[in-house]
Design brief:
The structure holds 3 protein chains of 3 kinds. By secondary structure, chain A is mostly helical. Chain A has a single domain (4-110), classed as Helix Hairpins (Orthogonal Bundle), CATH 1.10.287.3510. Chain A is built from 4 helices and 2 strands; from the N terminus they run ααββαα. A two-stranded parallel ribbon of chain A has the order 1-2. By secondary structure, chain B is mostly helical. Classes of the chains: A mainly alpha, B mainly alpha, C mainly alpha.
Chain lengths: 111, 236, 496
């Protein structure tokens, strides 16, 4: 479990760096998506117990992995997908208005 | 040039500090023995309390059904918002009709996709799956139809209005299932604790109202995601 | 008794049936929305007037045992948000009847989703449930910001969406870390388990919760979405955002900070001091930025940021008087800002623009609305006997009683600063050359009845509170008990 933590920290940092510095709106959305994926990875990582089976309890078992983060992860995935859909819809509308995907250009064009 | 460099360096320092803090906290809270508290209850008592074998589905539709209701609301709102933001005249996707070979193969495969999704939904409390996975596959079916047969073919049969109607009905069904818990004497969204036909674990008809909730949520998720894709991919 | 959950079921039922109604019979949309809003207000007032007998109230969903189920708790601290919610949601629905002309069904759908989200956030006692309702509120907010379909609305919505999603990720990260540390998501079981963690870990957790919720109540420097978002939106959303949504996010943050970590931890580790300084900084920044604005809505947006600074200062004092003063100001500011935005919307009908230099001399054309406008502005500065004076006095008193002299001085300084820009608006409206277009509906006769009522009602409440603040302080008098002593909150569910 503890080996995954540096990966999660690196992913979150990379994603937020992309959000802070990129100008292309699609890249910003990709950055947010990376951060959200890192959180889901964290949810998967904390559920794991070594030698644990999946929480489908129809056969005798020794240890079972934690089922609660899996349920939380499902909800989190759905919420992230919905938010990404709304972001993409807004990008399409903004592109139709301003013909550019550069967020600084849009700020300048608006005046 | 100088200004851009300063921004990037500043962001890099900020972000690495953030990464270090996250790492520090993660190592500090990991591995607590007392942290298995609720998980142990779910594992030890889940099957006998809810008569569902798939503990994750039991959590989603019985222990924490309120979260599922909130999540269904999120999908509903997102579908409505995307349909509101991108009305008919904002075209965005090019025509992608495929050759008849592809169309015939997909026509052969589609019924099996339906069977898979309904299997996942109906057996949600017995094997991995549940309402959400089944619903996602249903929306994949609609996306597949749009890609192979063209946008116009899909909207002649199911346009955004009709799909939104089905989504509404699915959502109202889930709300009514929750009210059934109140009628049976418990609180909202009560399922097994008020004794609504638990059945024996391992049978198809077990778990109280869980199969019904699975179908309602699958209808809503499937049509909701289809509405989102239809709105994002309109063409003239 | 199933009343609290009805506050969530009724708007949710409205949301899901609006789609059906829009498909079958369009003319039942408005009665449906008004009925559901009225029912919610009745339930809220039932809780307010029966607060001694029925509260604290807990309701566990799914009929599970209390330490396992998702619980809904209504206690005296929740009444703070209920007091704002009951009146302002109904009035904003009334105002929106004539303001929204296209896509009515979708607008009321988003409005009701917003109600569901805020009601769920303030009542829930489960961490992940809090995150789900936080996202429900956020998504409907983003959509309402983009509702008007103008260029500035879309750009503001995208920026708000970016900042809001990153903040939601921080909140989710904090919740997952709390789960890893304690093994439960139930808000009453977490405090004792969090006590075993090292201090630095708890401080970083507090930082993540603060970033996660701080974007939404516009703490500086995470406030950049707010001025743009306030410009291109319908007035209904302006009122709801400053009166309800911003307050709800701060309400939840205070609940988390005080119940999970406890007053002693906050004061021993300088968190209270940091919050206090941050509140002062936020307030001064808001006032300074409001000075330079030419657009009325942006000015009121920065003014909201400044007033939230006052609330942050009051809550971080950590004394019962401080929390009482902060809660009073939360409700009071909601009422005042609501009244100002409603009146500004009415003035816009005659002036055609929200730019201040185009609203000169409005008082000749709309004398009564200008009078309401001026009264509320004076109240926000803090001139007695209006309600703004009462709330500022309570905060000053609490600050001096706790021994903090510098914040008290800063509050007085801030009030003088705000006097500067509010006075310039008043002078603008009453004097100055008229240079707005002449062919717009003029005078109070040009306004419809549903546009006059909300501003007038809120102004009347403001004046009444100015003379009898005890009406409101009596209502929220027991709120600090449920925040400062963790055991009061915990014992609602477990223990005798």
């Amino acid at each position: 479990m503890v080996l995954v933590f540096p990966a999660i920290a690196v992913l979150i940092s990379m994603g937020i760096y992309a959000v802070l510095t990129q100008k292309n709106m699609i890249r910003i959305i990709i950055g947010i998506s990376i951060v959200e994926s890192a959180i889901i990875l964290l949810l998967g990582a904390i559920a794991y117990i070594p030698e644990g089976v999946a929480p489908i309890l129809d056969q005798p078992y020794d240890t079972v992995v934690d089922p609660l983060p899996q349920a939380l992860g499902l909800t989190a995935v759905v919420i992230n997908a919905s938010t990404t859909a709304i972001m993409l819809a807004l990008v399409i509308k903004l592109y139709n208005r301003y013909q550019t995907l550069d967020i600084h250009e849009i700020r300048k064009l608006r005046g | 040039m100088k200004k851009i460099n300063f921004d990037k360096v500043f962001s890099f320092i900020l972000v690495s500090l953030l990464g270090l803090f996250i790492l520090r906290v993660l190592y500090s809270v990991a591995g607590e023995e007392a942290a298995r508290f609720t998980a142990d209850h779910y594992i030890n008592f889940g099957v006998e309390e809810t008569s569902a074998i798939n503990i994750v589905t039991a959590i989603l539709f019985d222990y924490r059904a309120f979260d599922t209701l909130g999540e269904a609301t999120v999908i509903f709102t997102a579908a409505s918002v995307v349909a509101l933001l991108l009305p008919r005249h904002e075209a965005s996707m090019l025509k992608t009709e495929f050759t008849p070979v592809v169309q015939q193969s997909i026509a052969f495969v589609l019924p099996f996709l339906w069977i898979i999704s309904i299997f996942l939904i109906a057996y949600g409390h017995l094997s991995p799956g549940g309402g959400f996975s089944g619903g996602v596959i249903i929306s994949a079916i609609s996306i597949l139809i749009i890609f192979t047969y063209g946008y116009r073919y899909m909207t002649r049969r199911f346009n955004v209005k009709k799909l939104s109607l089905i989504e509404d009905i699915g959502a109202l069904a889930f709300l009514t299932i929750g009210l059934a818990g109140i009628i049976a004497g418990g609180t909202f969204l009560a399922n097994s604790q008020v004794g609504i036909y638990p059945g024996t674990p391992g049978e198809l008809l077990s778990g109280g109202l869980m199969p019904l909730s699975n179908f309602a949520v699958a209808a809503k998720v499937g049509t909701g995601l289809s509405v989102i894709f239809l709105s994002l991919a309109r063409e003239d | 008794m199933h009343l609290p959950i009805l506050l969530i079921i009724i708007p949710l039922f409205t949301v899901f049936s609006l789609g059906l109604f829009a498909f079958f019979s369009k003319k039942y949309i408005i009665p449906l929305v008004l009925t559901s809003s009225l029912l919610s207000t009745v339930i809220i007032f039932f809780f307010i007037f029966n607060r001694e007998t029925k509260l604290p109230f807990s309701y566990n969903l799914g009929s599970w045992q209390p330490d396992l189920a998702i619980n809904i708790i209504v206690d005296h601290y929740t009444l703070v948000i209920f007091a704002a919610m009951g009146l302002i949601t109904l009035l904003s629905v009334i105002y929106s009847l004539t303001e929204i002309t296209r896509n009515k069904a979708k607008f009321y759908l988003l409005l009701n989703v917003l109600f569901v989200g805020t009601a769920g956030m303030v009542m829930t006692a489960d961490l992940f449930n809090l995150y789900v309702f936080f996202e429900i509120t956020s998504i409907s907010s983003y959509a309402l910001v983009a509702y008007n379909d103008k260029d500035i609305s879309l750009e503001a919505a995208f920026k708000y969406l970016m900042l809001g999603t990153v903040s939601a990720v921080f909140l989710l990260l904090a919740i997952i870390l709390t789960y890893m540390a304690t093994g439960t998501l139930n808000m009453v079981l977490i405090p004792e388990r969090l006590g075993n963690l090292p201090v630095l870990t708890r401080q970083i957790l507090i930082a993540f919760y603060l970033i996660g919720l701080g974007v939404k109540f516009a703490i500086v420097p995470l406030h950049t979405w707010l001025p743009d978002a306030y410009v291109g939106v319908p007035i209904t959303y302006n009122v709801l955002s400053s009166a309800l949504i911003i307050k709800t996010q701060f309400f939840v943050l205070m609940r988390i900070l005080y119940i999970f970590f406890g007053l002693n931890f906050l004061q021993n580790n300088m968190i209270s001091t940091i919050l206090l300084v941050w509140g002062i900084f936020s307030m001064l920044f808001g006032h300074a930025a409001a000075f330079q604005q030419n657009n009325l809505k942006r000015l009121l947006g920065y003014s909201t940021i400044a007033q939230m600074g006052y609330v942050i200062i009051a809550f971080s004092l950590g004394t019962p008087a401080g929390i009482l003063a902060g809660s009073f100001h939360m409700i009071n500011h909601g009422i005042m800002k609501g009244a100002i935005f409603f009146a500004a919307g009415n003035l816009h009908k005659a002036a055609g623009s929200y730019q201040l230099d185009k609203m000169q001399g409005m008082a000749d054309i709309m004398p009564k609305t200008s009078l309401i406008f001026v009264l509320i502005l004076l109240s926000m500065v803090g001139i007695p006997p209006l309600s703004g004076f009462a709330s500022k006095w309570l905060i000053l008193e609490a600050s001096l009683e706790a021994g903090y002299l510098l914040p008290a001085f800063m509050i007085i300084l801030g009030s003088f600063l705000s006097l500067g820009y509010y006075l310039s608006i008043i002078i603008n409206i009453y004097t100055g050359e008229k240079n707005f277009s002449d062919n717009l509906p003029v005078g109070v006769a040009g306004l419809k009845i549903n546009e006059i009522i909300p501003a007038a009602v809120l102004t009347a409440v403001c004046i009444v509170l100015g003379f009898y603040p005890a009406v409101l302080t009596g209502l929220i008098a027991r709120a600090p008990e449920f925040l400062l002593q963790q055991l009061n909150f915990i014992n609602i569910i477990i223990g005798g």
